[in-house]
Amino acid sequence: MPICYVSFGSNWEDRIGNILKAISLLKKIGKIKSISTVYESEPWGVESQPSFLNGVLKLETHLNPISLLRALKNIEEQVGRVKRYRWGPREIDLDIVLYENYVIMLSFLKVPHPHMLERDFVLFPLVEIDRDIAYPITKERIKSYAERLENRLKPYCCILLDKA
C-alpha cells in the first residue's frame, strides 16, 4: 500500500483533544506507521492568533491522493473545523505533505505540499520520523532542507501508537 505523510495542527479550543480525535479517525482510512513528537509552534501566515500544536504522521493507505484529500477534509469536518480565513485559527488542519514520490499539481491538490520547505513545524517532525526521505522534485534529502531552517519548535507531548 502507498505511504504518505500527513501534517496535523490545531490552535483552537482543545488542541490536543482535536489532534487525538483526528488521529483516531485517520486509523479508519489506513495504518499509522509512526507519529512525530507534537510540537508547539508560532502561527505561520497570520501571526495574531494562538500558538499551534503540530506534528507529522506516516500513513499507509489504500486511498489514492485525491481520495485521501477528500477523507482528510471529511475528518477535519468531523473534528469540528470551522472555515474562517486563510491561515487563520483552526480546530484541526490535516495536509498531505508527501505521497510516495508523487508530484501532483492540480488546482485543489499540490503534492509535495507547496509550503513544506518553509515550515519548521513540518520539516523537523518529518525528519524525526523518516531521516532518509527525499523531496520528490529535487531528490534532495528533507534533512538537508531542515538544516537550513531555524528550529523554533517546543516539544509538547508524544502520542503513543497502539500496536494492537
Low-confidence stretches: none
Number of strands: 8
Helicity, as a percent range: 25-40%
Q: Output the structural class.
A: alpha+beta
Distance between the termini: 19 Å
Overall geometry: globular
Helical segment tally? 4
- Radius of gyration over C-alpha positions, nearest whole angstrom: 15 Å
Give a short account of the largest sheet: 6 strands, antiparallel
Beta-strand residue percentage: 25-35%
In summary, what is this structure?
With 164 residues, this protein is α+β, with helices and mostly antiparallel strands. The chain has helices at 15-26, 65-79, 120-129, 142-147, and strands at 3-10, 30-35, 38-41, 52-61, 93-99, 104-105, 110-111, 154-157.
Descriptive report:
This protein is an alpha+beta fold and 164 residues long. The chain is 26% helix and 26% strand. The chain contains 4 helices and 8 strands. The chain has helices at 15-26, 65-79, 120-129, 142-147, and strands at residues 3-10, 30-35, 38-41, 52-61, 93-99, 104-105, 110-111, 154-157. Strands 1, 2, 3, 4, 5 and 8 form a 6-stranded antiparallel β-sheet that branches. The chain has a two-stranded antiparallel sheet with strand order 6-7. Strand 6 (104-105) and strand 7 form a beta hairpin. Helix 1 (15-26) packs across helix 2. The chain starts with a strand and ends in a 7-residue tail after the last strand. The model has no long low-confidence stretch (mean pLDDT 95).
Secondary structure elements and pairings:
Layout: E1 3-10, H1 15-26, E2 30-35, E3 38-41, E4 52-61, H2 65-79, E5 93-99, E6 104-105, E7 110-111, H3 120-129, H4 142-147, E8 154-157
Antiparallel strand pairs: 1-4, 1-5, 2-4, 3-4, 3-8, 6-7
